[in-house]
Amino acid sequence: MKKLIYGFLLFDVAVFAIMVLTGALGADVNTKAVDFDSAIKANKGILVDVRTPEEFAWERIDGAVNVDWKGNDFEKSMQKFDENEPLLIYCRSGARASRARRKLRKMGFKEILNLDGGILQWKDKGLPTWKSPDYKEGGHGGGEEGC
Fold this sequence. Notes:
There is one protein chain. With 147 residues, the chain is of the alpha/beta class. The strands form 2 sheets. A 5-stranded parallel sheet has the order 1-6-5-2-4. Strands 3-7 form a two-stranded antiparallel sheet. The chain is globular and about 45 Å long.
């Protein structure tokens, strides 16, 4: 049974990788945590956390850069990235990243993967995060309304 489950998981990751490499996914994709993790490990784009600097400082996916969706300089900050380079974006639960993704498309970014369910789903799947030394589970970084 485990071999069957691992076989399906490996097949899903392989199909996802082929779709990313061939561009078959198009510009905008909501992706599950395991596929998002595979894209990060395969260095398939720039990992961007669109939460507030406080949330980012508290806990984040290792290797992410922080560009605050609610910040006054979101567009200017994102212009430092190549619009042809894929972006892997996430927030707390997916809402802010979805709004950011729509904005990024208007700015000309071609391929944007949004972590479906945000860092909450990431953690729910047992994937690792970097945490501040002062981190207390459930203590900080609650996010905004709807995210």
